[in-house]
Design a protein that fits this description.
single chain, alpha/beta, 3-stranded parallel β-sheet, 9 helices
Length: 164
């Protein structure tokens, strides 16, 4: 639903027109206005090795950005490529990471894989030079609370919303 609401390649007005959100004053301001990056980390782990998950995600996001926007300059770091995308389009990005914690949960004994993944998230979401310039919003779902993943340095700037 988040993808359908934000993604500018969708025309989802009809999908939401009779829901409570459609009555909100800001409903149309955000409807279908963004490039959306959607990751399902459990699916990523289903198609690549845990050791290659971060490079797989970086590679595939970069390829998709360049497929859609061939004029965007690819950079060495993913966050720089995304910054170039935002400069090119003039719009920030919405990122949705479903099961954000799968690489942590499923690699409990391999702290190096966990560390690489958390450093990747940190490079995107705790980078004072680019995070606010790139992302309009980030949604991360999972079982583990984001702030309580056991590594204080990683991604502590998020607000947790518990849904049952």
């Amino acid at each position: 639903m988040l993808c359908a609401y934000y993604d500018k390649t969708c025309d989802s007005k009809e999908l939401f027109h009779d829901l409570k959100i459609a009555k909100d004053d800001k409903y149309l301001k955000y409807l279908n206005q963004y490039d959306v990056i959607y990751l399902d980390m459990a699916s990523v782990l289903g198609v690549t090795s845990p050791e290659d998950a971060v490079s797989y995600v970086k590679r595939n996001i970069t390829e998709e950005v360049l497929d859609i926007y061939s004029e965007v300059k690819e950079a060495e770091a993913l966050f720089d490529t995304l910054a170039n995308l935002v400069i090119y389009t003039g719009n920030k990005i919405i990122m949705i990471i479903d099961e954000w914690d799968a690489p942590i949960r499923e690699n409990g004994g391999n702290t190096e894989i966990q560390r690489e993944y958390l450093l990747f998230l940190r490079s995107l979401f705790k980078n004072s030079g680019t995070t606010d310039k790139i992302f309009a919003a980030v949604y991360m779902t999972g079982i583990l609370p984001i702030k309580k993943d056991g590594s204080q340095f990683a991604i502590s700037d998020f607000e947790d919303e518990v849904m049952v």
